[in-house]
Design brief:
Length: 273
Amino acid sequence: MGKNHSLVKSWVKRAVGETERIEACFSGLAYAPHSHDTYTLALTTLGVQSFNYRGELRHSLPGEVVILHPDETHDGQAGTDSPFAYRAITINPVDVQNVLQGASLPFLQGGVTRDPHFIRIATRLLAEFNRPLETLEQEDLIYAFASCLQRATSNSIKHTQANYFAMKQVREYIDDVITVASSMPIDITLDELAAISQYSKWQVARDFRSLYGTTPYRYVILKRLQKAKALIEHGLPLVQVAFNSGFADQSHLTRHFKKCFGTTPKVWAKLNQ
């Protein structure tokens, strides 16, 4: 009798180091529709990785690279009855914008590529999970990723009227507040950000999204969710995770976690056991 692939246990393993790099294997449905505020760069290693993206069902085969743009809704599932596996890294649009210095974030239509430049970058970022990426090594590869993505989308990319340095100041202020606030509720207003940047608050909302792929509010939520995910992977109880990452309660955490990652904190904890 053939192997029943529906019985194959799904799993997620995290690479050594602070950079979020994961290796995962799933049968059937992997993720519900969701969007996150980072680029995802993924190298398919087994089976058929399928996902709905911008109105179409996409497929990635072993050796192909998936590149998902920030804040674009997608899901994930096996494209056949067999399991699929991949390795992935999340890349903060802040790091990409540090390379682009004021250009709109590049968008790769279709989300899947066989471009050898992207394959080489993804392979180098995802090859060794038993050691952390060196800082200079990672920065070099992110520079290569941003430059390659900009070249590949040169027909659609343009410099914006956004003030890069003003929005950088806004982002750094948010990062500082989150760091100092620890587990306390975070209440940052557009009026505050407008005063810091000397823009109107609506200009802040528009320009921040243009440069970083998301709104200031969503950026705050993402930073808190990143902290929550790390705490979950360290085995903390979910009630404590919610408190320590600044959410009102566990249900508040769960709602945002599923919207951003396509699964619940409880399921994520089980996948990482």
